[in-house]
Each structure stands twice: as C-alpha cells, then as structure tokens.
Amino acid sequence: VVALAGRALARLLPLLLLPLLVAVFQPQGEDGKRDLKLVLLAAACGTVISAAVPRLHLSLIAVAFTSMIMLSVAHLQDLQNSELEQAVAGQSDLQSRLQLRLDEQRQPESEGALSNFFPRASSRRSAAEIVHALRYRPAPPETDASAVQMETFSIVLPCAFEGEFAEKTVWAIWENTDHDRLKEIIVVDDGSNPPLRAIMSEKLLAGGPGVPPMKIVRHEKTMGLITAKKSGGDSALGDVIVFFDCHISPRKGWEEAFLKQMKRKGDHRTMVVPTITSLNPDTWQEIQGSAGGKVCYIRWNNDFTWLIYPGRDAPLMSGGLLALTRRWWEETGGYDDKMVAWGGENIDQSLRSWLCGGRIEVAEGAYVAHMWRDASNPKTLLKYPIPTADVMRNKARAATAWFDQFVEKVMTFPEYEMFTKFKQPLGDMSSFAALKKKLNCVPFTSYLKRFSYIYVDGGLIPEKVFQIRESKSGLCLERRTKHNPPHDLVMASCSGMTEGSEQSEQQLFHLGNRDVSTSGKKCCSGIMHWNFLQCLEGHAKGQAIHTVECEVGGEVSAQRFHLQDSAQGGQFQWRPKTGWKEGLLQKHTADGCLAPQEPKLGKPVMSRPDSCSVVVEEVSGSQGLTDSDGHHVPSAFRLRGRASTGGCGAAVFSSGDSDFEFQFVACDEADERQTFHANQRPGGFEIRPSKGKGDHCFDSAGGNAILIYPCYA
C-alpha cells in the first residue's frame, strides 16, 4: 500500500510542483499580486506531464524545462511593460525640454562667479536615453514581390520666367547623360511670359535624332514651384523621377551614381541627392573648385541649414535636386497638394520618406552645378514674387503633419504668430492621416533618434539653458544682432533677476556642438545661443568674440569654448586643450579665456600746453629723478584726467602690430597697466609701461598721437 501511494504521489508531483514554482518565482504586478492565469496554465501543463511521463526523473526534467520557459516569458513581458512606461514618461520629459518657456529658465543667482551658471549634472535621464526609449521600429510597408525596375529617367524641370536658362539646362542634361537612360525631359512652363515654347529653338522643339527628348507641360498662370514639380512628377513615365532646377548642368556620370545608390538597399524606397557645386551663368560651365553642398538638417523653427560634414544618410534634402523611383513617388503621394508657391516641400518630402519606410542618401560621385541667385548679377535674380505667408503656411503644415507633439515647440517662434495668435487656418490635413495609416509611418522621435548626432550630440536638445555673468562687473553676456552676421556680444545688465521681470532671450545660452576630442564625439564643445543656432566664435587673442551659425559637427576650432566649474577656476576658456592630469583626461589648458573688453573713455591726442587735461600723479614710493633743468620727475607715475570722468591712461593689449595701445580707462590703483616708468636718457626721458613687454616705449608718432611702440636702441 505504501509503495502504491508513493508511486501515485510521484505521478502527481509535476501537477503540484510546476504551478508552485511559477507562483513563487513569477514577477509581481504593481499591486503586488501574481498572474493567476499563468499559474492555472502551469497546473494544466503539470497535469499533462503527470499523465504522459511515468518516470519520476524524466517528469522532473520536464517540469524544470517548462517552468524555465514560462518564467522567462513572464519576465520578458514584465520588462516590456516597464520599458513602455519609461517611454511614456520620457516622451513627456523630452517634450517639456523642447518646449522650454522663458519663465521656466534657470534664474541666475544674485552673486557669484561664472561658475555659478555652469550647468550641473541632472538626475534626469539624458536626452540620448530619452530619444532611444521613444524610438519605434515597425515593419516596413508591405510591397508586392515583383522587383521595381530602375533603368530609365524622367527629368522634371520646373521653369518660371527662366528664359534662355531653360534651353541651356535641357542641352546640358542631354550632353552629360547616357542617352539610353534618358526617357524624357519634362519642362514645366509655370506661367512664363512669353511662354518658353515661343523662345526655344526650332531644333529643340522639333525633336528627332541627336535632340533631347523634351516635352513641355504648360501652366497658363504661375502656380508656384511646388505645383510645377507635382505636375511634372505626375506626368513622368520613366522608372526614376529626377527633379532638377531650371538652371543646372550635371557632371558626366551622375545618372549611374544615382542608380548605384538607389539600388544599394535592394528596394525602391531610397531617394538620392547629389553634391551641389556652382554654375557660371555666362559660360554655363561648372566653376572649378566651388564648394559642394550635399544635405541639410531641420532647425526647431522648421527652417533648415546646410550640414557641413554629412555621412551617407541625408537628414533633409535641400529641395531642388533629387531622385526617387516613380513607384515611391506614387506610394508617398508626391507633394502635399495643399502647399502652394515655394518653401516647405523639401521638409514634407524628406519626413515622408524617413518616417514612412524610406531613406534619403547621398549619391557619391554625382555632381550637379547649380546657378545661385546673386544680388550683384541681375540676370540670376528671381523673376516672380514669393508670398511670405504662403511659405510660412507650407512650413506650418509640414510641422503639424510630422512633428507630432513637438509642433508646439515650432509654434513658439514669432514667425508662426499668424497661426497661433491670429488663428489663420492651415487647410485640410486629412491626407496626412491617410498616408500615415497606409504606410505605417513612425513617430517623429524615430527621426530624432536616427539623427541623434545632430539633435543630441550637436546640442540642439540641450540639458539646461543658462545665463553667463562676469563676476567682477555683475553684468551678463548678451547677443546684439546686426543686419548681417557675425553678430556682436556685449556685457549688459542681467535680465530676469527680480520677481516678475522679463527674461531676455538674448542672454540665454546652452552647451552645443559635438566634442571631437571625445570617444563617440558626444556633446559638447561650444556655447550656443538658445533658439537661434548661433555659436560663440573667436579667432585670436585680443579680438572681439562674435556669434555665427553653429557648426554642430564640432570641427571648427574657433567655436570651441569650455566653461570651468568653480573648483577648476571658473574661467570661460577658448580653444581648450585636452590632456591627462592626475590620471584623468581633462581640459586643463586653453589658448585663451574670455574677459570683458576694457571700456574706452578716450584716446590720447597731442594738445597745446595751455589745454592739457591730464596730470602726472606720482606713485607712492617711487624714486625721484631730475631733468637737465633741475625739475623733479617721478620714476613711477600715473596719468589721470582732470575731469571726474576723464579716467586714467593705460597700456591696453591690442591685436595690432604694436601689441599695446595707449587708452584712457576707468581709474583703478590696483591695475598695473595704469602705471608708467620714466628712464633717464640723454636729452630727456624714456617712458615705458609697467605691464607688458619691457622693450616698449611711448612714441609721439610724429607729433600726431601717442603710441606704445618698440623702444629704439
């Protein structure tokens, strides 16, 4: 009886043991409870093992194996739920950072050195971690199994009032393209007056052997660049649609470089762009050695600028020169048919591709010379107006369609007040929702993740925004804009220091630009002006610092600045040098540091003896000298203006050939630059500055001015 009972218990052991193991070791939910369904499933599996496996040791192996699988699935599910919760929290965190309002900026402390405004480490996750958590990777859009042919080209030229440039462009394409590849050149005459057909040559219009296969699509009135490109793209018959401007000349081999890049991935969803060089409008030849732009990137005001050192992937097309398969054109819907005139279509089309399963790449070896609009050359100027309101509406449509919740950041910029403040409509946006559903498009955060080397490492998503105050004067660094860059930097009263006072955007800065001296080139190596993509730049000691457009790749040494914390000295270093110090890799030296430029109270000039306004003030403890007439001359002295605001003479460092200038600045007895020394020489005295090179002396400059110049032997 005992033996039978033991065997029966052994057969029932899997039924009891398996649900017990699952119940004990499965992860608990937020409420502390365990998943009863998983325990019941374990009991069912235990019943099957008890019935199917009579031997005890085999049944125990089956129990162990089954419990491992079930517990692994349970822990994996718990991990996925946890990551999803973190992603939701992270999305809110990133959104709040991007939508930083002025009243949320970090307020400067009333006292303290520059180090008080150095961004301290945050307990929040980094921007890179947040964007990574938000990235969504769906399956690519479904396509049928048939391969897409990429053999023939339809080239679309949108031409409005281009005159002779249109025919020159057609012939340049024909002469520099494999004729077997060229199915057609579609010239979209966008309301030109006179019509392009009326001014083109009979040979080109007649066609035939040795003549470009051109066809003209005519708009009787000017509809704008976007509509012209859409008309041309919709009428194209080639496998590949190429959009060129109506004033270009490609370099031989461009079409094969396009096809090689488009076929790289093995599908039809790769768009390509060439390297863009400059075209001479008189000779219609490429200007040799002209710099080549390739791709751009989107700024937070939904404008764009050139990316100086791009890789293969193009974050944003410049707009005018690109190629894509006709199938991808049709699947993505071409251009937004509610956009008019010009502007914003490149942003829309780029995001359609990146977020909906496609990609944009640089076609290495493809060069296209482009005629740029030159204000000094009237023949290159645009011949029709571009309404600013239409451009801004196009950009607002693109941002609203693709930026998700981050469109709120875009709309904080004043150029969008017509939509935020004055509530002007954007038009019907339903086509975007249909396209996103059709192509299973991903969120905008996926784009930020893919190009995190720009937005995170380049500093466009800053950890903190701060003011920079000079400790001695208590003034803050402020950007003063000019009509054309570079823009000036001045010291001004710190804004937002009292409750209710307005914070000035011109005083807000943050870290920016990649640091090429570090592994992975993470952020940051420069100082960026908040919201304006302007970075501090300096070129030589003694020269003023300005702001220019940031080179987010960190390759421009003139834009490298480092804010030391108080333990390091609190300096604002220019071109810091990295090295090993006390076993750690640190920025411990620099080519220079920032300091306020000495305010000039006046320059010394030669005057009549009865009108001199400066007196010699002997420095305490100086030795007396005697001139040839027996007059007392102090060996060390200051030059003080008689007026209360006259200031004192000083040897101020200059970037000029003489290294120093004689200026009148605010009097300060502790300032060694304001002390001068007299050395007796035959026939008079030699005056040398106390601070600076010992071989420099006062020079009368022929009686017109006073210089500090190398002494004569």
From TrEMBL:
Q: Which GO terms describe its cellular component?
A: Golgi apparatus
UniProt keyword list: Disulfide bond, Signal, Transferase
Where does the Galactosyltransferase C-terminal domain lie?
317-365
Gene Ontology molecular function, alphabetical: polypeptide N-acetylgalactosaminyltransferase activity
Does Amino-acid biosynthesis appear among the keywords?
no
Record's superkingdom? Answer: Eukaryota
Boundaries of every Glycosyltransferase 2-like domain copy: 154-285
Q: Does the keyword GTP-binding apply?
A: no
Q: Name one GO biological process term.
A: protein O-linked glycosylation
Query: Signal sequence: where?
Result: 1-23
What Pfam families is this protein classified in? Glyco_transf_7C, Glycos_transf_2
> Which PANTHER family would you find in this protein's record?
N-ACETYLGALACTOSAMINYLTRANSFERASE (PTHR11675), POLYPEPTIDE N-ACETYLGALACTOSAMINYLTRANSFERASE 3 (PTHR11675:SF118)
Protein name per Swiss-Prot or TrEMBL: Polypeptide N-acetylgalactosaminyltransferase
This protein's species is: Polarella glacialis
